[in-house]
Amino acid sequence: xxxxxxxxxxxxxxxxxxxxxxxxxxxxxxxxxxxxxxxxxxxxxxxxxxxxxxxxxxxxxxxxxxxxxxxxxxxxxxxxxxxxxxxxxxxxxxxxxxxxxxxxxxxxxxxx
Length: 112
Description:
Blueprint: H1 2-15, H2 20-41, E1 45-46, E2 54-55, E3 57-60, H3 61-68, E4 74-78, E5 83-89, H4 96-111
Antiparallel strand pairs: 1-3, 2-5, 3-5, 4-5
């Protein structure tokens, strides 16, 4: 067990040297902020503010049904009878094209 703790400590030491952690997560956070803006522009409220690669918009259930046809999200909480909060998460591999498509589909789902 001690060896595992030492290895974890080495990882943390490296990740927080010269802001490496922030550099490697920058793209994911930037993509998540684009998605958050699209949600906000479409009229979504947020379950909680998030400065990370995870966003928690509140959608009408009808919009979530449309989005579920093409996208995966994590159900987070029932907000009221017709709205739910979900978790949308980005990573280093999330492309501009992925985000562009999702943002367009969010606007479309919210307009219906």
